[in-house]
Design goal:
- The complex is a heterodimer of chains A (209) and B (281).
- Chain A is an all-alpha fold and 209 residues long.
- Chain A has a domain of 87 residues.
- Chain A contains 6 helices and no strands.
- Chain B has 281 residues and is α/β, with parallel strands linked by helices.
- Chain B has 2 domains: 63 residues; 199 residues, Rossmann fold (3-Layer(aba) Sandwich), CATH 3.40.50.
- Chain B contains 11 helices and 6 strands.
- Chain B has a 6-stranded parallel β-sheet.
- In chain B, helix 1 packs antiparallel against helix 11 and helix 4 packs parallel to helix 5.
- Classes of the chains: A mainly alpha (209), B alpha/beta (281).
- The interface between A and B is large, with 41 and 50 residues.
Chain lengths: 209, 281
């Protein structure tokens, strides 16, 4: 066991316990940690974006290489900021139109292919009882169909239709249960990360050995 | 009657237990296993094995893109995953391009990259390239198809990407054999949409446990070759490459926490039904 002499590590330990202290009750240490996190994150992102985006992709090309065409997207970017000035907020619509138009054009065809058509294709399966895979296919087929029916609201959920919709709810519940289980696992993992940080990095306990 | 009253108060006390006591018990259940390791087994799931097998099948002429698209809030889950896959690639002398589409990514993985490189005697620029962060997300992914050097003109340390020996025969996705996207959000789907679907590059997501359930439809449709889900996915990968590190150690704590939570759920439900029965009586 060898205690860390790095001040930043101990600052990390202080903020770790400050955040965890919220589990006991809200307190000034938690508030301090919360505000420092927000402030540092925003400051970090602003500085990084300046050096990674604004400087190499705008300032240098425009002012050193003379690529004046880049002033057009820069102007659109400034228009975005006009949203906060009610008198000139209409200017921001041009920037939004361009972003939405370009973004949709780029995303819709590819998302349709990746997340809709390929997923549809994946539900067209060999159904049967000959193997485990075929039985799984039946479960997938029934699951997809019943959940889709549950989300069909133009017909009242009664009779056979209502029964299938109810089955859809069961499939959804199983899905939510799996997601919740995974979420619990994720949150515990974050705590494990902090425990390892305190034990290894700060207190210098060699857990692997 | 008095006994019944006493029994009733016991269940009610149990149900009304202070949540902070529960937090404390779970915290102890997670801290103590680090000191008393029982070596619980970590069975490997099929989706992790598929990623491992794929990387295992690559040769020194092949190239893997490791995209560290995560921030500090999810690093405990994704950093061990990144390390395991990176070490596996170095072990098999597969070329690796370490990139990040989130600004915090490079800073988080740099110590891991350097340590793994030292352990496997790999050299930056020769055996792997640490290209760092590039602004633009989906635009960067698309740009990489045209030219990786254009998407990442310099590496993380400022060296021109075109000057790196490892980039000699790597120009775009045609020379990329696998993309591993490590993410705590839906970034893996962006890789799927803009790299796998149009250019048929194999993609394997390494995701936080929260995201893992959403990935299964894409595994079933075979759009992803496999998946590493949460700390468990990282621990499984560590088991496969026989380099047990942080994730494997963390899994022991994870297992005990799950046992305690399950016990609390059972006790809570028994208490709930017991009180209901007493109220009816």
């Amino acid at each position: 066991m060898e205690l860390s002499t790095n001040l930043w590590i101990w600052l990390g330990v202080f903020f770790t316990f400050s955040v965890l202290s919220f589990l006991y009750k809200d307190n000034p240490f938690y508030k301090l940690a919360e505000h420092v996190t927000v402030g540092v994150s925003i400051g970090y992102i602003i500085v990084l974006n300046y050096y990674q985006a604004l400087q190499p992709k705008f300032l240098v090309p425009v002012f050193q290489e003379g690529k004046l065409v880049l002033l057009i997207p820069a102007l659109l970017g400034i228009f975005m900021v006009f949203r906060i000035i009610p008198k000139y907020s209409w200017l921001s619509r041009y920037a939004i139109c361009f972003t939405v138009g370009a973004g949709s054009g780029m995303a819709i065809p590819r998302s349709m292919q990746a997340s809709v058509l390929r997923q549809l294709e994946a539900t067209m399966l060999n159904l049967g009882f000959g193997s485990t895979a075929e039985i799984n296919n039946i479960v997938i087929f029934i699951g997809v169909l019943s959940v889709l029916i549950y989300f069909f609201f133009s017909k009242e959920h009664k009779g056979v239709f209502g029964g299938v919709a109810k089955l859809g709810i069961w499939f959804l519940m199983v899905g939510f249960g799996a997601t919740f289980g995974y979420t619990v696992m994720a949150r515990l993992s974050l705590f494990i990360g902090r425990v390892l940080f305190v034990l290894q990095d700060a207190l210098g306990i060699n857990l692997a050995g | 009657m008095a006994k019944q009253q006493q029994e009733k108060s016991f269940w009610q006390k149990l149900i009304g237990i202070d949540r902070r006591v529960i937090y404390l018990i779970i915290a102890l259940a997670m801290i103590l296993p680090f000191f008393f390791q029982m070596g619980l087994p970590i069975p490997v799931t099929d989706e992790v094995k598929r990623v491992y097998d794929y990387v295992e099948g690559l040769t020194p002429t092949d190239c893997v893109v490791l995209s560290a698209d995560f921030s500090p809030s999810v690093a405990p889950e994704l950093s061990p995953m990144f390390e395991a896959v990176f070490r596996h690639c170095l072990k098999n002398k597969v070329k690796v391009l370490v990139i990040s589409l989130l600004p915090q990514g490079p800073g988080l993985v740099e110590p891991v990259v350097q340590q793994a490189a030292r352990d496997h005697r790999a050299t930056n620029g020769v055996d792997y390239a640490f290209l760092g962060y590039q602004y633009g997300f989906s635009l960067v992914i698309m740009r990489m198809m045209e030219n990786i050097e254009a998407a990442f003109p310099n590496d993380y340390y400022g060296t021109k990407t075109s000057d790196l020996p490892v980039m000699k025969n790597i120009h775009n996705y045609e020379e990329i054999d696998l993309i591993v996207s490590l993410t705590g959000s839906s970034n893996h789907r962006v890789w799927l949409t803009y790299a796998h679907e149009p250019y048929n590059v194999p993609v394997a997501p390494g995701v936080t446990a929260v995201i893992a359930a959403d990935v299964y439809p894409y595994l079933q449709s075979k759009q992803f070759i496999g998946m590493l889900g949460g700390l468990k996915g990282a621990a499984e990968y560590e088991t496969l490459i026989e380099e047990k590190k942080m994730a494997s150690m963390g899994m022991e704590a994870q297992n005990w926490a799950h046992i305690v939570i399950i016990l609390f759920i059972i006790i809570g439900n028994i208490g709930f039904f017991a009180i209901k029965r007493q109220e009816r009586a």
